[in-house]
Amino acid sequence: MSEEEKKDVAVAESGLGCDVCCPPNGCLGTQSYDYKHMCTPSFLAVCMGKKTPAPFFFGKDDKLPIMLSLFLGFQHAIAMLGGIATSGGYLIANDACLPWQRDSEMCGRKAWLISTAWLACGLLSIVQIFRLKCGGYSLGTGLISMMGTSFTFLPIARTMTIAAISDAKATTCADNNGTAVFTGECCFGGDCKGAGAIGYGKFLGTCLVAALVECIIAMLPPRIIKKLFPPVVTGACVMLIGGGLLTSGMKYLGGGVFCAENTESRSTTFGGPQLCAGDNGDVVLPFGSPEYVGLGMSVIFASILIQIFGSPFLKSTFLFWAMIFGVIMAGVSGKDVDGDGEKESYFRRDYMDAADEKPITFFWVEGTFPISFAPEYFIPILVGFLISTAESIGDITITCRFSAVIDENDVASRIQGGLLADGVNSFIAGLLGSPPNTTFSQNCGLIPLTRCASRSAGFSACFFLIILGLFSHIGAAFASIPICVVGGVVLQAWASVFVSGMALATQDFTRRNQFILAIALGVGIGVAMETHIVDWPGPYTFFRRNLAYDYGFWPEKDVCSTPNAPWINEAGKCQGVGIFGVNNGNCCSEYDTNLKMWRTTCLMILKTPYCIGFILAFILNLIIPEDIEDTEGSGFPGPTVKREITTGTATA
After folding, report:
1. C-alpha 197: how far from its chain's center?
2. I want to staple 501 with a disulfide (CB 3.0 to 4.6 A). Which of 21, 26, 238, 283 is the partner?
3. Is 354 found in the same domain as 213?
């Protein structure tokens, strides 16, 4: 290699090779890329009786013509739009829209949170793609490692937001000799304006502190990182992220989380099922109604059709187009709920009306969240960052392989840079009011499909995310989509995450690793299926906070220093049924602050599938020694060791 070539490589590897953004001669690039391959439907290729040749492979530092860069970057952008929207604010703010835990301020920010999440991911992906070097460390991977809001923190963010609203209800609802007297507007059926935003602000503030841990991990020697986070651990946590969220996906598909979780107890107390109000426009029906399920399944049906007949371009972005199909179906159907002959819409109009007033949006234009620190949630969020670290290691390793980066030292360096960028970007995201960021797994699969690893396409994807985030109407449109349609989308997205983790976890499928997976997945998925075991009595009851005071893995009465006497019966049990059967769990006037913090921490870890599952996999990987046959690279009886089943002996 000449000195000039070495200089070019050094510039590119430093992350300052901005020339990848500068196109060569030509704009369309028809001579350097086969658009026909990407746009030819599968059934036409079959009918023609021949396969179109695959496109040329573009390396990470190859220049692309403008149109080609935009074309390939658009695929990366739309492949992650839905995932960023749901985890970046849609589901967090949507919980505050429910009538039983309403915060109009937080609910009204749903569309804005979606837009700012896209903006943040577009800006922070640039940091990851550039790869800036400083001494022996780097910031970023220097690959197409698109950043997106992490699903890992979604349950924690939702829990903290809802908990803040519940606490506000408990402090504003008074009692009078055991008879509930709801005095504040935040009480039963009221609006706890600003309470959810306070809880979300605590989430952001706690993430700002915990994000520094991932930065510290990034500075560890590569051999230590490899020892702490082998594929069996990273794969197990990715599987549990997807598997743990699948139950929520089914609830969305059936009409909404709240009506799903309270249908059984409402029917026994008030008579009749809980209606799904607010999540599907004016079409208010019981959970599991065929109208809801049909719309959700239409999204899955569209995905199947795309995989059968679609072009490679459509297949690589199938979730976006399937969602569009579900939106169209919801738009043309409607439902006459009141029997007045007029069809109600599945869509909400208030978000679009708000966007008409502010067509352009940006960070902080809707206000800020009161940043604070919640010690009781620090450990669960810290575990979340360890899981995000494990997930990013897997994603970066796969991206290196698809980008033709095979040198072990180079791969280790890019993993270090990627983890540092994850931590730094998550810190910045918190300041911007967005959840922590991590590398997006689904974008890794686009590299071999498009045969493009050029960072030019990554920068184009960032451009699209930023543009989409700036226009309020786009975020408002996403926020208005019926939850049953969203269910059809996220059900596939989270199942894809689970499958990606499975592929990662089974790379080294030895007897030892099988045992680790069995324990981690058994407990993690078991908790996802039956949270009652640690979070008694689970979600299926209107009186869960009252019952949780007396019963469960760690009853609330054990951390209560001053019981609220009017709500305690002669047997010492919480009898707070009160008006409409709810007293917001206010059977305790004063808690032991330290004990309550540890109770919250313990239950949060135990009831979150990927928290408890990851911890088990992480610890078991450290304490269970590798078998001799594992170190020889055989695992199961294979080419290295041949076992005689009848005699139990082994021969080389």
Report:
1. 20
2. 238
3. yes
